[in-house]
Amino acid sequence: MKSIEINIQDAVFFAEKQYEAGKAAAVEALAKVNEGSGEGSDFLGWVNLPSSISADLIASINKTAERLRENCDYVVCVGIGGSYLGAKAVISALSDSFADFYAPAPKNPKVLYAGQNIGEEYTAELERLLTGKKFGIIVISKSGTTTEPAIAFRILKELLEKQAGKEAAKNLIVAVTDEKKGALRTLATQEGYETYVIPDNVGGRFSVLTPVGLLPIACAGFDIEKLVAGAAEMENTTLHSGDSNPAEVYARLRNALYQSGKKIEILVNFNPKLHYFGEWWKQLYGESEGKDGKGIFPAAVDFTTDLHSMGQWIQEGERSIFETVISVKEPAITRRIPEDAENLDGLNYLSGKRIDEVNKMAELGTKIAHVDGGVPNIRIELDKLDEHALGQLIYFFEKACGISGYILGVNPFNQPGVEAYKKNMFALLEKPGYEKETEAIKAKL
Ligand code: PA5
């Protein structure tokens, strides 16, 4: 099958010197990822994951998903950060844009999300929606101790047990967590839930191709074998160094642009189904690179929507930005613009054209305007939005992220900064064990 392609011709000339000078560093960074010789190498389990995932695991995930699909109208995916964004990115990309507004069909549950915020209204409104409904829960936490999903799970578990009975609820709850440690592992063992393991050597933001992402995606009715096959193809494509390795090219180029003063990268889509792919990508790059006082700031925009809000800044604001556009060649559905006899809106010059032809001209026009305005434009092109292409895209960005972090000179696989807010929150909430921190933080108030 055809691979995604990277096109750098409208970006590389902005940082030609840095790009040329960065070749050796990129080769070295790729070797660190492939050979596990860099910092954080105990978190490289994702590198060979697509080619090594067992057929038995895929079959088991599909079987569990089938059970939930048969017994639930709603499946709530409880998790935060890397424990939900990958699943949401893939499910949104492959789903009907209005899927949430159709009634659930038999054996085709809606996938909902909880524990990705601490919104009281969000939680209570979700409870209200699920009251009296047939639902199941996939609770996902690698550490098994994260506060946000723990609160949501406690509430949803209580509701499910009240509605279905404790015994039946056991069949409707699946936990994805560490093999041995964490409160979620203890709880799942005691309650007798079915569980899946997040491998120790795969960090949250790199875990979409483990049961973390695969189980919810299968529950939503999508083909996880094709997703993994696409990723495995990209694993192969990004193995060796050179211009034919799109991950190496992207990592090298974004670092060259960073060195030339482009400190912000926007991931652009012209297809609203990719909105959550941008959210997943932001976490992947933000958490992997933003450390030691360094790192490109990753933002994501939906075009043309955001051209009417952020377009001005991008076109004429501080020249510290570059863009990476995910361009999908062929939409799955054809819709042409109709002819109107009166033509009061003056749109007849477009009649008969596909809506996507207009979108593509917006895309081209935007690229030319942005490049003229000093915004380098990298393009990632895929033929269509399906499981195979998304698998490729996920692995491409993961591999590039590892390489890019090493070029930047950081450990791309840790996230020490994420602990700071948690420590303060626990101190403020007077969590047992945080007495000293509580005293210290209260002195600051
Ligand atoms: O990438 C990461 O490691 C984080 O974003 C985690 O996925 C997130 O904090 C959730 O952690 P956990 O799965 O342990 O609940």
Describe the protein's architecture and organization:
By secondary structure, the chain is an alpha/beta fold. It is 48% helix and 13% strand. The strands form 2 sheets. It has a 5-stranded mixed β-sheet with strand order 1-10-9-7-8, sandwiched between helices. A 5-stranded parallel β-sheet has the order 3-2-4-5-6, sandwiched between helices. Helix 2 (23-35) packs across helix 12 and helix 5 runs antiparallel to helix 13 (275-289). It starts with a strand and ends with a helix. Bound molecules: 5-phosphoarabinonic acid. 5-phosphoarabinonic acid (PA5) binds at residues 80-83, 141-143, 146, 149, 203-205, 287, 415.
Helix and strand composition category: alpha/beta
Order of helices and strands: EHHHHEHEHEHHEHEHHHEHEHEHEHHH
Rg of Cα set: 23 Å
Small-molecule components bound: 5-phosphoarabinonic acid
Helical residues, percent:
40-55%
Largest sheet: 5 strands, mixed
Strand content: 5-15%
Order of adjacent strands in the largest pleated sheet = 1-10-9-7-8
Shape: globular
Give the count of helical stretches. Answer: 18
**How far from one another are the termini?**
59 Å
What labels would you give this structure?
445 residues; alpha/beta; five-stranded mixed beta sheet; five-stranded parallel beta sheet; 18 helices; 48% helix; globular; binds 5-phosphoarabinonic acid
Write the layout of secondary structure elements.
Elements: E1 5-10, H1 16-21, H2 23-35, H3 49-52, H4 55-71, E2 74-78, H5 85-94, E3 110-114, H6 120-130, E4 135-141, H7 147-164, H8 166-172, E5 173-177, H9 183-191, E6 194-197, H10 211-219, H11 224-237, H12 246-259, E7 264-269, H13 275-289, E8 297-302, H14 311-316, E9 321-328, H15 355-372, E10 377-382, H16 387-408, H17 419-428, H18 435-444
Parallel strand pairs: 2-3, 2-4, 4-5, 5-6, 7-8, 7-9, 9-10
Antiparallel strand pairs: 1-10
Helix pairs in contact: 2-12, 2-16, 4-10, 5-10, 5-13, 7-8, 11-16, 12-16, 13-16, 17-18
The structure holds 5-phosphoarabinonic acid.
